[in-house]
Write a structure and sequence with these properties.
Structural class of chain A: mainly alpha
Number of domains of chain A: 1
Mean pLDDT of chain A: 83
Structural class of chain B: mainly alpha
Order of helices and strands of chain A: HHHHHHHEEHH
Number of strands of chain A: 2
Largest sheet of chain B: none
Order of helices and strands of chain B: HHHHHHHHH
Oligomer: heterodimer
Radius of gyration of chain B: 17 Å
Number of helices of chain B: 9
Helix content of chain B: over 70%
Shape of chain A: globular
Helix content of chain A: 55-70%
Strand order of the largest sheet of chain A: 1-2
Largest interface: A-B, 50 and 49 residues
Strand content of chain B: under 5%
Largest sheet of chain A: 2 strands, antiparallel
């Protein structure tokens, strides 16, 4: 039970994919036009992450090392297809608003990264909770960004009017440029925290700035995470 | 012909893949430090996306539709793209040394670039044929090339400006990207 709680805590706080690791930036920027979309995308990703972690952990002794990445991709793509059909059938409104970004969960670096770094090396239970924890962390991140954008851009949160009548919504925040501005703010805060940690002598190497120069793409991002997972284990 | 041109302008400028669709952000932020590497990356993306949308639409039309397995599109496309990139890399290495040296480093990075899969899926969703898909793929990739080269140019200038310590690195790049996105909003009146 302790590992389960530890994995959940790790995913939500210690290695939060949005705030600490800065992974999966495409959906983070694209679908967070409202808090509801953020939470929907986050939970969809969580379900896929948990299921694919579970499956990959079950298959970890069967999949040969040389073809593991294509095998992981097939597993993830299958779950994405299943989840897409379920959404189409039961939550069509969410399916419409997320659109193209649901099939694109396949190339979300969080999922392949966790498969490579954790699920392919650890037992089934721990991998499942790792997936749930990371997914919840991602959901928290997306919802937070969605709330900010919706609050400033429309003046509502989850569709409820929050700002006073006199507030004039800055609608650029729900448009494409707003996503970049909010993320800029977030990375600035991250920089600040990192600097003050370094001043106090705390280890800040855990905080990554996502797509830095050495992680030119998600592919190498996964490799980076795999290396990290290796040193942790 | 006019229709093709409209699709091309729409995909390259109005719905720019990076600045309004948010696809390929990783490569956009990671490889835009210098203009020549940015142009190399952009060139590799143009090459791969055009080829991938061509191959993906052929597979969709002649394999998935006749066998009524359209629902397998995500799985098939991602596998095809991964194989294609590997294959292109091997082919260029053997036959075209010059091009390989220019694009080679960037090719493996493109496999998980979400823009490639995104374009293939968009083509299918919009019901484009093979020719239109290839054209659309090319236009989207040109849009990527334009934005990454512009970004690299601006980042070159940013090196010499006095930026508050907190904003150094990614924050200021993202602010720049936001301003570029606003500028690209101006294209929306074109079509």
């Amino acid at each position: 039970m302790n590992t389960a709680l530890e994995r959940l805590w790790n995913g939500m706080v210690k290695e939060n994919p949005t705030f600490v690791l800065m992974l999966g930036m495409c959906p983070t920027l694209a679908v967070t036009t409202s808090a509801m979309n953020g939470i929907g995308m986050g939970l969809t990703t969580m379900v896929i992450l948990a299921l694919s972690n579970l499956m990959i952990s079950m298959l970890r002794k069967i999949i040969p090392d040389e073809v593991r990445v294509p095998a992981f991709i097939v597993v993830v793509a299958s779950f994405v297809t299943i989840v897409q059909f379920l959404l189409e059938a039961y939550i069509p409104s969410l399916n419409d608003s997320l659109g193209l970004y649901i099939p694109l969960i396949v190339v979300n670096c969080i999922i392949l990264g966790r498969a490579e770094a954790y699920a392919s090396k650890n037992p089934i239970g721990a991998s499942l909770f790792d997936g749930i924890g990371m997914g919840l962390g991602f959901t928290i991140g997306l919802t937070f960004i969605g709330v900010i954008r919706e609050l400033i851009g429309v003046g509502t949160v989850f569709g409820f009017q929050v700002m006073p009548e006199a507030y004039e919504p800055v609608s650029i925040f729900v448009m494409a440029p707003g996503a970049f501005f909010v993320l800029a703010l977030l990375t600035a805060v991250q920089n600040r925290v990192k600097m003050s940690w370094e001043k106090k002598g705390k280890d800040a190497s855990r905080i990554q700035s996502g797509c830095s120069a050495d992680c030119a793409s998600c592919a190498s991002g996964c490799k980076g995470m795999a290396g990290q997972g290796g040193t942790e284990a | 012909m006019k229709e093709l041109l409209l699709i091309a302008i729409g995909s390259a400028l109005v719905n720019n893949v990076v600045l309004s669709q948010f696809l390929g952000i990783c490569a956009f932020l990671g490889v835009s430090k210098k203009i020549d590497t940015a142009a190399g990356m952009g060139g590799a993306v143009v090459f791969v996306i055009t080829l991938a949308s061509f191959v993906a639409s052929i597979l969709y039309e002649f394999l998935l539709v006749p066998t009524h397995t359209e629902y397998l599109q995500t799985i098939v496309f991602i596998l095809v793209i991964a194989c294609l990139v590997q294959f292109v890399e091997m082919f260029l290495k053997k036959t075209m040394k010059g091009l390989y040296e220019a694009l080679g480093v960037y090719l493996p990075l493109i496999t998980t670039n979400c823009a490639v899969l995104g374009v293939a899926l968009t083509n299918v969703q919009s019901g484009y044929g093979i020719l239109t898909s290839t054209m659309n793929g090319f236009a989207v990739a040109v849009g990527f090339l334009i934005s990454i080269v512009l970004m690299a140019g601006i980042r070159g200038k940013l090196e010499y400006s006095d930026i508050p310590q907190t904003l150094q690195g990614f924050p200021i790049v993202l602010v720049t990207a936001g301003l570029m996105a606003i500028a690209f909003c101006g294209f929306s009146g074109m079509i």
